[in-house]
């Protein structure tokens, strides 16, 4: 699927992100909410692959960030401005052996070249909240429209340096954004602040570790005198509820309305970027030399959900990113049949994400003890997850510092020989990442599951934490080396049949640490293994895969002058591991101490009494039962996708083409996270729980493993009707009917209705096979460009004032309609099997029975679900209920005013033209009845308008 310069310039793009147009490709849909949808780029799934499996190139050179956790909020190092691009292509089906390293889509973009004449443009795009509609949740809560201003301005210039031989092109774009961020939270009510919990639906109970007289189960009360003094101090950080429906329900027994607090803090996002490209023709045009440098600087400040930066409540951060890309190329025509192309490139992106109170340590003020303080990471208070209300404290994995670099050298040789077109290539690369991406430098506590009182919020008031996390500072310096080669042939077997076939070889080393500080645990023996000098295995503790051969084959058969059948098969390896720090063997003892202590059941003492502070952490005496271990299978396979496609293309007229295609994509050996030491339910409902690695001295420790046994299966019928520009009209309309099932999620793609990326039961991952979060059964997208017939060079040339006003108008638009995404109904985990898995509810009925009226307050039949008993997993499957669908219409109206060889273009662009409300998922946790089954938020912006002026010269 190619997107040309006209579509890039004319179709309405919110934020002027070119990758958004990839969503017009059949089989492509926007990625579900999660890490991959929180940034300044368009993440998408292609043919059932995770969003982080796509491969971006710019001017033929690698443009992929090699960071962990996508800290820079984009898979691309450089996101070139729309006005700087000549075109870009999205390849999602069986493609040439020339492309590899990734199993998802290949996105090839190219910067414009200078020409023999000077040409350029100036532009300014502006948006303001005065022309926007209010968000649905704001309207519902009686909150006025939030502040919004955005300015995107810049220009381009290209032309000759030396006439006929040397050319240049440059561009600059600056973005300034201020936007109110609507965030919904649940805060304690006035009664809850007094220890009166009658508004909560759960019952209170006492237990061994709760002092006598501190629980009155009959009145659901905790005397203020029993409050932990640190908890009492932290309560003041919560703002008061402000949503009218919640205020009206105050005091109602069991009637807590969740969420009950809305904030509209201001997000600031500033971007400056530029590209400079030169092209040199030598040896009478037989040699072409390319050089390009690109730069992109982003500064982002996010508001906290709970207003107070100390309270935070979410991942609000101060983010700084700087991306750079340098490319050099030399191509040569060698006679009439051979063409050589060499590329050398370097890209680098550095980023930092700091918690908002970075440098302002608050632990002493609130009486929190045991958390190390250091100018490199301290600030705010520990993260505290509290059942029934929004978390309080700083975000996990903050601060983050990261610098990733990619060095690439590639040579391609094309040889035309009668009926064959051969192509060969080799590539050498090194990918480097230096980072600090640690979970709990400032500490984290969990009070979420009501381990001791049956109510998480009550456990917090009493200061009884069931989980402690605390990480000591450690920077990692990692790299991987890669070698690739391919051979490809396009063989014309007569005038009607072409066969394309080839093979690709890829070898990438496992991740290596520059000082060889790596630690692994052998899953078979439970023995700790340490890296050392020597072979690749000795240094990485993973056996490298040296047999990654990827065959490709396809055909095109012209049955009639208007009918062509195409089909093919390809094997594609996913070499790039974009998991976060979870899988990195450098982040293990003894070089890193990441304490993770959990009370397995209510019979075990709280790991932390809040007033007493965190348990001490030391590198001198590491207790293997109290730290988190990161493990990789030493015999892991490279994730791979088998892709097949078959279908006809028919030319309906000179300008109108329709094609239909079956596409299958079958992933095997997908990377999947699990707790290798998750407890085994030997006697469900009764206990005890057996932790399999306790026999090796790890007790109940969290052994976080990456294994490559994930699978996914995607089937689709993809239809596309395309009209090339004729008579002032061009359009592309695509319909995809698909089915995506699997049992693994790329960690960074998890989100939406997935409720996490760890299996419910690490010892039986078949329970997690089901609809993937990006399973959208039906999707229809249509884009069009229409020039009204009046104006210079068009069908009618009207005269006079009226004629001038009616001339040179154009209307362009994009329509998107999709089915809803699936989600999982979850429950508080009382299986007592350890950390990092999401329990599911018990299914006891039909979620959407025949005749059921789905409303925003009752999206599914809540009585169809129940909480599982202790020492049990829920019976519900994975992603078994479907959320609301999505619809959006973007429209732009242009007027062009020509002035000789110059012209001015005036634009009005409207996004979500009809102000359709696209609802978020309903409350998905059966253990949170206040929000269960209720929709409280939207996932898309309301109607927004953008005004622009462009000057071409």
Structure, explained:
It is a single chain. The strands form nine sheets. This protein has a 22-stranded antiparallel β-barrel. The relative contact order is 0.11. It is globular and about 90 Å long. A hairpin with a 2-residue loop joins strand 44 (886-899) and strand 45 (902-911). It has a domain at 20-178 and 276-357 and 394-438 and 473-587 and 620-771: TonB-dependent receptor, beta-barrel domain (Maltoporin, Chain A, Beta Barrel), CATH 2.40.170. With 953 residues, it is mostly beta strands. The chain is built from nine helices and 46 strands. The longest helix has 7 residues, at 229-235.
CATH class of one domain: Mainly Beta
Overall pLDDT confidence: 92
Number of strands: 46
The helicity comes to: under 10%
Fourth-tier CATH superfamily name of one domain: TonB-dependent receptor, beta-barrel domain
Q: What low-confidence regions span 5 or more consecutive residues with pLDDT below 50?
A: none
């Amino acid at each position: 699927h190619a997107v040309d310069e006209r579509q890039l310039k004319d179709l309405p793009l919110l934020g002027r992100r070119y990758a958004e147009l990839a969503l017009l490709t059949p089989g492509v849909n926007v990625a579900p909410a999660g890490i991959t949808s929180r940034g300044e780029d368009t993440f998408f799934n292609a043919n059932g692959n995770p969003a982080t499996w796509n491969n971006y190139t710019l001017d033929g050179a690698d443009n992929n960030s090699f960071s962990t956790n996508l800290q820079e909020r984009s898979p691309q190092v450089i996101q070139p401005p729309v006005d700087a691009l000549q075109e870009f292509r999205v390849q999602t089906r069986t493609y040439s052996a020339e492309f590899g390293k990734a199993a998802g889509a290949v996105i090839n973009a190219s910067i414009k070249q200078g020409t023999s004449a000077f040409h350029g443009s100036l532009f300014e795009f502006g948006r303001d909240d005065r022309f926007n509609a209010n968000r649905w949740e704001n309207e519902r809560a009686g909150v006025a429209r939030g502040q919004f201003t955005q300015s995107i301005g810049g220009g381009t210039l290209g032309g000759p340096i030396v006439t006929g031989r040397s050319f240049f092109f440059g561009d600059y774009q600056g973005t300034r954004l201020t936007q109110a961020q609507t965030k919904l939270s649940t805060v304690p009510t006035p009664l809850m602040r007094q220890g009166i919990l009658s508004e909560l639906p759960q019952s209170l109970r006492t237990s061994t570790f709760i002092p006598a007289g501190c629980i009155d189960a009959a009145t659901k009360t905790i005397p203020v005198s029993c409050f932990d003094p640190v908890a009492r101090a932290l309560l003041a950080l919560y703002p008061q509820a402000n949503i009218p429906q919640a205020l009206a329900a105050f005091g109602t027994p069991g009637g807590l309305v969740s969420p009950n607090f809305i904030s509209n803090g201001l997000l600031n996002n500033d971007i400056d970027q530029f590209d400079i490209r030169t092209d040199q023709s030598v040896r009478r045009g037989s040699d072409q030399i390319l050089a390009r440098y690109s730069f992109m600087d982003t500064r982002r400040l996010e508001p906290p959900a709970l207003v107070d930066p100390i309270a935070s409540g979410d991942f609000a951060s101060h983010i700084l990113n700087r991306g750079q890309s340098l490319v050099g190329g030399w191509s040569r025509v060698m006679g009439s049949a051979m063409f050589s192309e060499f590329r050398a490139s370097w890209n680098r992106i550095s980023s930092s994400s700091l918690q908002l109170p970075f440098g302002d340590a608050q632990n002493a003020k609130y009486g929190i003890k045991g958390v190390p303080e250091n100018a490199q990471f301290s600030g705010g208070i520990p993260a505290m997850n509290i059942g029934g209300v929004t978390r309080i404290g700083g975000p996990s994995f903050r601060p983050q510092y990261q610098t990733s670099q990619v060095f690439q050298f590639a040579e391609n040789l094309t040889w035309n020989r009668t009926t064959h077109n051969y192509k060969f290539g080799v590539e050498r690369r090194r990918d480097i990442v230096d980072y600090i991406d640690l979970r709990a430098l400032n500490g984290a506590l969990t009070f979420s599951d009501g381990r001791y009182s049956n109510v998480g919020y009550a456990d917090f008031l009493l200061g009884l934490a069931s989980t402690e996390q605390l990480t000591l500072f450690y920077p990692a310096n990692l790299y991987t080396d890669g070698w690739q080669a391919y051979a490809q042939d396009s063989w014309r077997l007569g005038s009607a049949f072409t066969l394309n076939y080839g093979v690709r070889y890829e070898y990438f080393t496992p991740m290596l640490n520059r000082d060889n500080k790596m630690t692994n645990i052998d899953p078979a023996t439970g023995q700790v293994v340490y890296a050392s000098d020597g072979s690749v295995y000795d240094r990485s503790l993973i056996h490298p895969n040296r047999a990654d051969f990827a065959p490709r084959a396809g055909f095109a058969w012209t049955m009639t002058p208007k009918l062509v059948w195409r089909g093919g098969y390809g094997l594609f390896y996913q070499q790039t591991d974009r998991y976060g720090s979870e899988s990195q063997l450098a982040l293990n003892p003894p070089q890193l101490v990441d304490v993770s202590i959990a009370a397995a059941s209510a019979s075990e003492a709280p790991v932390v009494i809040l007033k007493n502070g965190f348990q001490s952490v030391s590198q001198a005496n590491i207790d293997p039962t109290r730290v988190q271990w990161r493990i990789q299978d030493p015999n892991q396979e490279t994730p791979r996708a088998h892709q097949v496609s078959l279908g006809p293309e028919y030319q309906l007229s000179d300008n109108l083409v329709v094609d239909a295609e079956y596409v299958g994509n079958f992933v095997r050996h997908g990377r999947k996270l699990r707790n290798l030491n998750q407890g085994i339910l030997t006697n469900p409902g009764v206990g005890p729980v057996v932790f399999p690695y306790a026999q090796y001295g790890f007790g109940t420790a969290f052994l976080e493993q990456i294994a490559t046994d994930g699978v996914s299966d995607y089937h689709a019928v993809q239809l596309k009707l395309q009209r090339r520009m004729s008579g002032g009209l061009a359009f592309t309309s695509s319909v995809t009917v698909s089915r995506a099932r699997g049992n693994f999620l790329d960690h960074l793609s998890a989100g939406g209705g997935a409720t996490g990326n760890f299996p419910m039961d690490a010892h039986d991952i078949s329970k997690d096979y089901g609809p993937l979060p990006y399973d959208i059964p039906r999707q229809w997208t249509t884009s069009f460009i229409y020039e009204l017939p009046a104006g210079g060079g068009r069908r009618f040339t009207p005269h006079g004032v009226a004629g001038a006003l009616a001339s040179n108008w154009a209307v362009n638009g994009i329509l998107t309609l999709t089915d809803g995404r699936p989600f999982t109904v979850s429950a508080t985990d009382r299986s007592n099997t350890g950390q990092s898995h999401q329990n599911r509810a018990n299914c006891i009925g039909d979620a959407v029975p025949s005749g059921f009226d789905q409303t925003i307050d009752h999206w599914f039949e809540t009585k169809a679900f129940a909480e599982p008993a202790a020492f049990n997993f829920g019976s519900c499957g994975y992603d078994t209920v479907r959320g609301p669908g999505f619809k959006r219409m973007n429209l732009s109206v242009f007027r062009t005013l020509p002035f000789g060889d110059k012209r001015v273009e005036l634009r009005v662009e409207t996004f979500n033209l009809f102000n359709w409300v696209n609802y978020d998922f309903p409350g998905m946790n059966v253990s949170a009845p206040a929000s269960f089954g209720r929709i409280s938020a939207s996932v898309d912006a309301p109607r927004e308008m953008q005004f622009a002026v462009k000057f071409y010269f």
